[in-house]
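Fold this sequence, please.
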Amino acid sequence: MERHQVQSSALQSVGYDPENKILELEFRDSGGVWQYFKLPATVYNKFSHAPSLGNYFVTKIKGKYREMKVA
C-alpha cells in the first residue's frame, strides 16, 4: 500500500485502501507499520482532516478495528 508523509508527532506516514477499507499507519517512535481493517471511508476522511492525527487515532480508531502489525 502506498503511504504519504504526514505532519504528526505520532505518525510518520498514512495510507488508505478504500476498496478493501484498510488503513495503514507508520508510527514515528517504533517505526512499526500497522493495518486497521474494515475502516469506513467516512472515518478515514474525518481522521485525515483532524487537527491532531494522533489524538483522533487514539480516541476513534485504536481498539475499535481489527489490527495487524505488518512491519
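The first helix runs from residue 41 to 48. The two ends are 12 Å apart (CA to CA).
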